[in-house]
What does this fold into?
Amino acid sequence: MYIVKQMMYGFGDVINPLPESVDVVEELVFDYMHYMTTKAMQVAAKRGKLITEDLIFLVRKDRKKHARIKELLFMYEELKKARQAFEDPID
It folds into this structure.
């Protein structure tokens, strides 16, 4: 619940939203995540495991979501490379 409150505040809500509002948003997010993962599992059923491309496939027609997923995956790879640069010992 705390994370949902922070997200709501980050998107312009008050710092302490009504508990009922937080509950509704949390339920909506949970339902959406459940729906998307269920659909992704149906897409991945033949292969037997879920991969990132399955989720990308589901949002391919929604340009905003598709672009955001691509952006987040790109940033994830950049952060991973940056962490490896600091963790790898220099010979």
